[in-house]
Amino acid sequence: MSWKYSITLSSFRNMEPIQTTFENLSNLGFDSLEVYGEPDSLDIDNLSHMLDSYSIGVSGITGMWGHSSRHSKLRNLITTNNELLKAAQNYVKKCILLCHRLGGNTFNICLFSDKSLISDSNHKTLLPWQKIKLTSSAIRPLRELAKFARDYNVQLLIEPLNRYSTPVCTEVEDAKYIIDLIDQENVGMLLDTFHMNIEEDSIYNAIIRSNTMLKHVHISDNNRKMPGLAHIDFKRIIMALKKIKYSKYLTFEPTFRSTDYKKDLKFGLQYLKKLSGK
Q1: Contact at 8 Å (CB) between 237 and 212?
Q2: Which domain holds residue 168?
Q3: What does the radius of gyration of the chain's CA atoms come to, in whole angstroms?
Q4: Where residue 9 sits, what CATH number does that domain have?
Q5: What is the Cα–Cα distance from 73 to 18, expressed in whole angstroms?
Q6: For an engineered disulfide with 60, which of 47, 64, 68, 106 has Cβ 3.0 to 4.6 Å away?
Q7: Could you give phi then psi for residue 104, rounded to 5 degrees?
Q8: Greatest Cα-to-Cα distance within the chain, rounded to the nearest angstrom
């Protein structure tokens, strides 16, 4: 079994001309990327041209949830406002269509809710029964979205985030519960090492428990830099991925603070390839 490498285009957003990003990624050996999910603002024709020009494929679409953009704070799939729910569903559908058009096949779902529905806004934690109560309202809409996505050969992936992003779905067990309830073949799990480092007792054990539900992995160190530049034990992560015979994408999702990122990007890619022997 062998996995593939990708990187999030959102890591370079508003940092430099898109052609510069594509040229740098191509020179570093990347042949796939994950496009950020802003269908209404992306210049899709230009993006498609860049992908073709540099022979770079698309692994999927990154859902822009929470506070990732000025629009995303309204993208709550857990809400008492029917208009907001409809807008969030329409956003997902647009991202599914974008994914299909660009040749990708994954889109991640992050479950945010109305702030008024979170009882502990200070510690950002919910008890298991509170999580179940909140997520129950999202199951039917998610099942409908999964059926829509199936027609376009797109997988919807539930992504647990850390409690400081959203306390609704924070651990592998939360995601497994939701996936089981949705009960659609094209619904799986995306795990992110940055979030897992905060929430999971053991990243290794969490990956093992995700097993065949795991369809995509976001990779960054605990400081959101490239792997090997902080203290997450990626050797154990690679061991766990090999144990469950994972064979899909490892997508780097670093945060860069300047356009002087090529050295760190090259280091992180080589570091992970050396650990995995792939």
Answers
A1: no
A2: 4-276
A3: 18
A4: 3.20.20.150
A5: 25
A6: 106
A7: -90, 175
A8: 51
Q: Which residues face 250 on adjacent strands?
A: 5, 217
Rounded distance between C-alpha atoms, residue 84 and residue 79, angstroms? 7
- CA nearest neighbour of 11 among 88, 52, 64, 74: 64
DSSP state of 31: -
Q: Measured between alpha carbons, how far is 169 from 162 in angstroms, rounded to an integer?
A: 8
Into how many domains does the chain fold?
A: 1
What are the beta bridge partners of residue 108? Answer: 157
Q: How many CB atoms lie within 10 A of CB 80?
A: 12
Per-residue pLDDT of the chain (278 residues; tens, 9 = 90+): 589 999 999 999 999 999 999 999 999 999 999 999 999 999 999 999 999 999 999 999 999 998 766 776 789 999 999 999 999 999 999 999 999 999 999 999 999 998 888 865 555 789 899 999 999 999 999 999 999 999 999 999 999 999 999 999 999 999 999 999 999 999 999 999 999 999 999 999 999 999 999 999 999 999 999 999 999 999 999 999 999 999 999 999 999 999 999 999 999 999 999 999 86
Q: Is 24 helix (H, G, I), strand (E, B) or coil?
A: helix
113 token code pair? 């809710």
Task: Give the Cα separation of 274 and 277 in Å (integer).
Answer: 5
Q: CA 239, CA 229: separation in Å to the nearest integer?
A: 19
